[in-house]
């Protein structure tokens, strides 16, 4: 049997506001419907999956780690961030900054598989988003 990722659900007070921000990341709603049994409206935005896609488990190695802070609020853990693979990460940083997105300091940084930058959850409907440029 094979396990395949279906989707990542993001709760938001207004889909339209978050969808506008996601357009800057080249993500657009392709379908929207209501789910009466759950009393929600659902919008679907297809995402291409990188050949490098993995689930990432994060464990803090020091008490001042961002993951330590996250776990102090959520001791059982939980989804920490959503990551998208990109190329030309410097251009993404420029675009996002020009569009008013808050980038977490220090901006572009060394990451597990290359370079990354993180978009503050305030700019993305409460979800921490990572853009990752993977070194080949």
Report on this model:
With 136 residues, the protein is an alpha+beta fold. The chain has a single domain, classed as 2,3-Dihydroxybiphenyl 1,2-Dioxygenase, domain 1 (Roll), CATH 3.10.180.10. The protein contains three helices and six strands, in the order αββαβαβββ. The strands form two sheets. It has a four-stranded mixed sheet, with helices on one face. It is globular and about 45 Å long. The model has no long low-confidence stretch (mean pLDDT 91).
What attributes characterize this protein structure?
single chain, 136 residues, 4-stranded mixed beta sheet, 21% helix
Considering DSSP H and I runs of 4 or more, what fraction of the residues is helical? 10-25%
The average pLDDT value, as a whole number, equals 91
Shape: globular
Corresponding CATH superfamily: 2,3-Dihydroxybiphenyl 1,2-Dioxygenase, domain 1
Q: What is the second-level CATH architecture? A: Roll
Number of strands: 6
- Spatial order of the strands in the main sheet? 3-6-5-4
What structural category do the secondary elements indicate?
alpha+beta
Q: Proportion of β residues?
A: 15-25%
SSE blueprint:
Layout: H1 15-24, E1 31-35, E2 40-44, H2 66-73, E3 82-85, H3 89-98, E4 109-111, E5 114-119, E6 129-134
Parallel strand pairs: 3-6
Antiparallel strand pairs: 1-2, 4-5, 5-6
Short description:
The chain is of the alpha+beta class. The chain is built from 3 helices and 6 strands; from the N terminus they run H-E-E-H-E-H-E-E-E.
């Amino acid at each position: 049997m094979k396990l395949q990722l279906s989707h990542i659900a993001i709760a938001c007070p207004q889909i339209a506001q978050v969808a506008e921000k996601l357009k800057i990341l080249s993500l657009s709603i392709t379908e929207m419907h209501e789910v009466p049994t759950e009393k929600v409206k659902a919008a679907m935005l297809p995402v291409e999956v990188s050949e490098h896609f993995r689930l990432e488990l994060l464990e803090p190695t020091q008490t001042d780690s961002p993951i330590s802070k996250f776990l102090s609020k959520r001791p059982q853990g939980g989804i920490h961030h959503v990551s998208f693979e990109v190329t030309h990460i410097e251009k993404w940083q420029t675009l996002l900054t020009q569009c008013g997105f808050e980038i977490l300091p220090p901006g572009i940084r060394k990451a597990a598989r290359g370079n990354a930058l993180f978009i503050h959850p305030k700019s993305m409907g409460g979800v921490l988003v990572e853009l990752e440029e993977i070194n080949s």
